[in-house]
């Protein structure tokens, strides 16, 4: 019995080695550690996190794992704080960072940004499933100060719009009936409901409306990478293009409770 087990183990190891040798990456590029994709992960679910097995999770994590698979890489994750994330790239301690980052002009000054993975959709959250801005004109609506859509909504809704300094107070007033609806990222409700929270509420992707610019030009999720490794950036962008074309990213969004239309990113743009 022991001899048979040893033979089987040897066969399995041989098969694994052969499979690794048969793997052919689609691009030529270098990583900090040969054969390894070192990923700095800032937890921001449902977009990014580290699973108990140490692998990346969330929408961006699913995409990273598929990129690594196609490029014959193993993944090493490093859990990091958002304040230190760009320094991990600049200092050569991570090949790529995942954490719900937007493509912004400011970030391009210090790092490369991948082409968009998804758009962080604006959502109207209510008990009644309100799905348009005109209906909100007669409702008490709450938003978080500083969000992309606040200035336009203030023009549209006037005194019916109530800004909050932070998200917890906003959500609390919605749950207690002091607000009819709130506007947040669609991902916020998806994450809350995955934890058993806000079960009585519905999120509707805000319709594209020229009166509210952020409804038509939502922030695009991206992977920050080093400016010193253009071949790596090209590999990431080319593989992302394939994953969009094949519907992989749409499926990853659905897996984490997000609207698959968030995969329709449009052309790359900067905030």
Number of domains: 2
**Extended strand count:** 14
Total number of helices: 10
CATH-derived architecture of the largest domain? 3-Layer(aba) Sandwich
CATH topology of the largest domain: D-Maltodextrin-Binding Protein, domain 2
| Anisotropy-based shape | elongated
Please report the first level of CATH classification, the CATH class of the largest domain: Alpha Beta
Low-pLDDT residue intervals, each spanning 5 or more residues: 1-19
Percent of residues in helical segments? 25-40%
Average pLDDT score: 92
Question: What would a concise description of this structure say?
Answer:
The chain is an alpha/beta fold and 271 residues long. The protein contains ten helices and 14 strands. α2 (58-70) packs antiparallel against α10 (248-255).
Give descriptors for this structure.
single chain; 271 residues; alpha/beta; D-Maltodextrin-Binding Protein, domain 2; 2 domains; five-stranded mixed beta sheet; three-stranded parallel beta sheet; 10 helices; 37% helix; elongated; disordered N terminus
Describe the structure.
By secondary structure, the chain is of the alpha/beta class. The chain has two domains: 17-119 and 219-263, D-Maltodextrin-Binding Protein, domain 2, CATH 3.40.190.10; 122-216, 3-Layer(aba) Sandwich (D-Maltodextrin-Binding Protein, domain 2). The protein has ten helices and 14 strands. A five-stranded mixed β-sheet has the order 10-9-11-8-12, with helices on both faces. Strand 9 (141-144), helix 5 and strand 10 (161-164) form a beta-alpha-beta unit. Helix 2 (58-70) packs antiparallel against helix 10 (248-255). Residues 1-19 have low confidence and may be disordered.
